[in-house]
Structures are given as C-alpha cells and as structure tokens.
Amino acid sequence: MISLTDIIVSKPFQRLKGKTQLFSPTSNDHYRNRLTHSLEVYAISNSIVSRLNLNIDLNLLGIIALAHDLGHTPFGHEGERTLNAILSGEDDLGGLLPHNCCKKEIVQGFKHNIYSAKLFLRTFHSNTEDDEKLDLIVDGIIKHTKPYYKDKNSLPIVIDYGLGRITSSFSQLNSIENYHLKIEPISTEGRIVAVADEIAQRCSDFSDSMVSKLIMFDEFKELVSQYLDVETISNYRDLESTIRESLINGLIYDEKDNYLKFDKEAQLLNDSIENYDDR
Fold this sequence. Notes:
globular; two-stranded antiparallel ribbon
C-alpha cells in the first residue's frame, strides 16, 4: 500500500514547491507555495481529527491531504482558469493555436482536482492493491473542491473536465461518475481534507497578503475583531494562528449523517474572510 513518504518523495509532489499558492514563490521566501500548502492541509486535517476525537483511517486521510493538489497548474487558480479556457476551445491565444486544436469532445476543459486524481493514479496505482480504498482516495482528491466551474448565472458548467478518461482507464472507479451532482466526499477522511483545505486557504491568503503589503494588519484585525477577541494580538502570525484555531474548534461532526461543518460563529468568521479576499 502506498505510504505518505511515497507521496512526499514523488516527483509530482516535489514539483509543487515551484507552483504559486497566491503569490509567486520566487518573489519572496516567505510566501506559501503549493507544496507548503499541501503540508498545511495535512497538518490541519490531523488537528481536526484530534479536536473531534475521530476514529478514522489516518493513512487514507494523509494520502488525500498530501495528494489533493498534485495536478495543480503554475500561476495559481488564474493559471488553472487560463488552461481551462484553452482546453475547452474558448481561447486560441490570439490565433497562436491551430483552429480547433482543443476540441471539446476530446479534452473538455481542465480542473486541477480532476487532473490531480489522474496524476495520482498514473504515479501510484501500481502501489495500491485495495480497489475500495483507491475509490475513496480518488473520490477525496476530486471532491476537495467543486468539480466544475460556474457560468455568469452561478450555475454549473457541466462538461467532462477529463473525468471520462479516468473512468475509462480504471473501470473499478464507478463512484466518480456524475460528480457534477455528487459534490460531497464519500468518506469522512475526504470531508475532513476538504474543510482543512478551506481553512488553510483562509489563513494563508490573508497572511501572505500582509507580507506583500497588499492588505494592512490593522485593517484586517479590525474585521476579525467582530468575531474574535484579538485585542492583544500585535502581529499577523499570531492573528493567523488564532483564526486557524477558532475555525478548527468551530467544527461540528455528525457521525450518523456523516457531515462536517462550521458552527454559526465559525461560519460567519469564515465567510467574512472569504468576502474580504474577494474584494
């Protein structure tokens, strides 16, 4: 069975150190990159398990967490959206690409989570003998974020994004069909990683933005003070740690219905930071 060390020492994982999280990792040694982000998601996932005292498969959790962004593009989500436009035939780069070089029936767009699953299978499938566990790994990787883009009316753009190639190559992965409707991970481990990914992004995006001077500490602290007692905090690292801890402590898990979500206070904090990021 694949180990966490197998993922960490793999070439796809090591390549993540050169890929942008929010700011180019080459412009400042203290900016996150996709590799450090993946490690943070792994750490936060384990903190969630400890906080909620969950009895789960820690190896499965670690595999999903470390591998969830294996197929991410350079240049962050802007790079992902650009590649999707090219591979869905919407952008020919001003005529630089041959006409109809990217026919929709051949590729049909790009989503990093789906390519991450494909890259995981290509790299580690021979190490994974348990088909049921492989299903859960692929399910968790793909569903750590939405498996589709939205149109101008916020409705899903339902195209293949490469899912068909995975199902045709690995017939046992029946669970990944119709993901445009089934967006929640099957396993508790997958749901934990999806929430951990969200927490990691909330914390790192504003923290790196402060390093870049794109946003000011006092301004952001004032926003957070509406939800948390941060009066004595004087630096962005302590503020980041407080927000992360509050979001983790604000999680609710229902074993019967297998759902994991923020309580009301944590959800308000999470939403306020997300809206702040979208300004």
